[in-house]
Amino acid sequence: MLNNYDNIVFVANTGDDTISIISLSNMLELYKIRLANGSGPHHIAVDSNQNYLYTTNSHNGSIGVVDLIRNLWVDNIYVGSHPSHLEINKKNRCIYVSNADSNSISIVDMDSRVLSAQVSVDRMPHDIKLSKDYQKLYVTNTYSNTLTVIDLTCNEIEKNLFVNMNPYHIATNQQCSLLYIVNTSFSLVEKGSITIVDAKDLKVINKVQAGKMPIEAVLDKNEELLYVTDAESNTVNIIQLKDNKLLEKVKVGRMPTSIVRDKANQYLLVANIQDNNISVIDINKMEVFHNISVGNEPSCIFKSGD
């Protein structure tokens, strides 16, 4: 058991049903937590007390529950088909889950671990994000090219907004007043983009080119730059938001997907699915200085407390 998780990163390894625990102090994997066989963990969230870790298990349609005190998988909560992402609402103690193949959002009571409701959305919901006040849930529907906004006071759809082709992941600024929707590309002919949405008015305010196959994005500390993984070019693309200009590209591993920034603004961590490792980028130098081996097909990096 770890005393705290201030310098710890969790990685979901889809290919071998494990969670890697990484120390940023010494830049290595400390150990793995094994889930049920055939889980296919895709995304991770940790509760505010840091007692439990939750995973979306894409292969068996469940949320995996990991006891972080015992470092042990303890339960599966079955939701919809091919769950992709989850968010924890600490106000109402509910977990929200996007189900890509059943076109729905599952709502789970954290205390009873019981599925309490389902909300139908558009085709292939993938990423979800909570608003700052925990009153709304934003959902990217990849096959419908829309963003669904759900009012969580009544669990009803407030609006569906067209946000360009293949919306995949969502990044937000600190206040959640702006949503940066990563529109990926499933074709070598097409190019990806970032759609910027005003969360208050629910309007598209800009669109930025973002590489060949952008997957996930994170803002810098000052919210002036957007770091975007590009799975086709094996790079992290750095976009200056002031003038929507691509500043540079940082070469990482093969098929980079998930990306996070540490709270101290020293590192970017990038999951490389085909290399089974995490690239660590020095933000000041903008270059990879270390690679950390993890499990097979790392699909999500989660930094607790950031």
- Tally of extended strands? 28
Q: Main β-sheet, in a few words?
A: 4 strands, antiparallel
Helix content: under 10%
The residue ranges in which pLDDT falls below 50 over 5 or more consecutive positions are: none
Mean pLDDT: 95
- Give the end-to-end Cα distance, rounded to a whole number of Å: 21 Å
Q: In the CATH scheme, what's the topology name of the domain at 80-162?
A: Thrombin, subunit H
| Beta-strand content | over 45%
Quickly name the level 1 CATH class of the domain at 80-162: Mainly Beta
Distinct helical segment count? 0
Radius of gyration: 18 Å
Overall geometric form: globular
Quickly give the CATH architecture of the domain at 80-162: Beta Barrel
If strands are numbered along the chain, what order do they take across the biggest sheet? 3-2-1-28
Q: What structural class do helix, strand and pairing data support?
A: mainly beta
Order of helices and strands: EEEEEEEEEEEEEEEEEEEEEEEEEEEE
Overview of the molecule:
This protein has a domain at 80-162: Beta Barrel (Thrombin, subunit H), CATH 2.40.10.480. 0% of the residues lie in helices and 58% in strands. It contains no helices and 28 strands. It has strands spanning 8-13, 18-23, 28-34, 41-46, 52-57, 62-67, 72-78, 83-89, 94-99, 104-109, 114-120, 125-130, 136-141, 146-151, 156-162, 167-172, 178-183, 193-198, 203-209, 214-219, 225-230, 235-240, 245-251, 256-261, 267-272, 277-282, 287-293, 298-303.
